[in-house]
Amino acid sequence: MARQYRVDDLRYLIQRLRDPESGCPWDLKQSFSSIAKHTLEEVYEVIDAIERDDLHHLGEELGDLLFQIIFYAELGAEQQIFDFDSIVHGLVTKLIRRHPHVFPEGTLESVIEPGSRVDSPTEQARIKAVWEEIKAEERAAKGESKTLDDIPLAIPALSRAQKIQKRAATKGFDWQHLDQVVEVVREELVELEAEVEINDSTAIEDELGDLLFSCVNLARHLAVDPERALRRANDKFQRRFQGMEELAEQAGNDFSQLSTDEMERLWVEVKLAE
Fold first, then answer.
1. What gap in Å lies between CA 168 and CA 151, rounded to an integer?
2. Do residues 236 and 215 both lie within one domain?
3. What is the pLDDT of residues 76-121, one digit of tens each?
4. What is the pTM of this model?
5. Residue 27 lies in a domain
6. How far apart are CA 129 and CA 250, in angstroms?
7. Residues 7 and 78 in one domain
8. E strands within 60-171?
9. Which of 222, 225, 196 is nearest to 211 (CA)?
10. Residue 233: which domain range?
């Protein structure tokens, strides 16, 4: 029976790859910054497998992402900043601290009393409030005293807008009713149209940004993930556009030479077919 490799084997493998005398030339050249883009690609591939319900390949994609994490841990160990064990220790410590409703005594072994209810709306609201309070304390301990201090700049803009709005909402800065959010979206569209009439490119960009930000706010109030919604819209457009090209090809036509009206008819035909 073939040997079942474990996390320690993966750590050893990466140490071998980074061995100055016998390691891999490509791996030896890497640094935190050089592999960051690869990490982002691996995250997207994990999400893609999940959204396509491709669970057969999800394990493989998670393995690729795990490789990135262990690689960072090895780089940290080489520079005596951190290592894999300290990463795990810090993570477990943080999760225990953030879940007092599961670990009441602040230890991994402590348990809640039998029969305790954590699924009631009141208890869930309390748990969420405690979670935000604990995270605020953690931010303060890191010198991040402002509400929005620790929201990463590098995450996709739609996701960052959502995080900014959710964090601001914890301080009471939020619309109370959906119709108010819808009205803001309408107002931002009117302001954008006004700048388009003037043809001020800088102002157009600003107003378009405001419109997108307000649309993210609308998505949040509708309990919709804007990043996922836009990915689905992208996939839908791609599917329909390719369907239009296929219909044109079947009719012996060059799609790029069709008139706008002909393209519109194909678009409607593909939509109806769905």
1. 12
2. no
3. 999 999 999 999 999 999 999 999 888 989 899 998 877 666 677 7
4. 0.68
5. yes
6. 59
7. yes
8. none
9. 196
10. 228-273
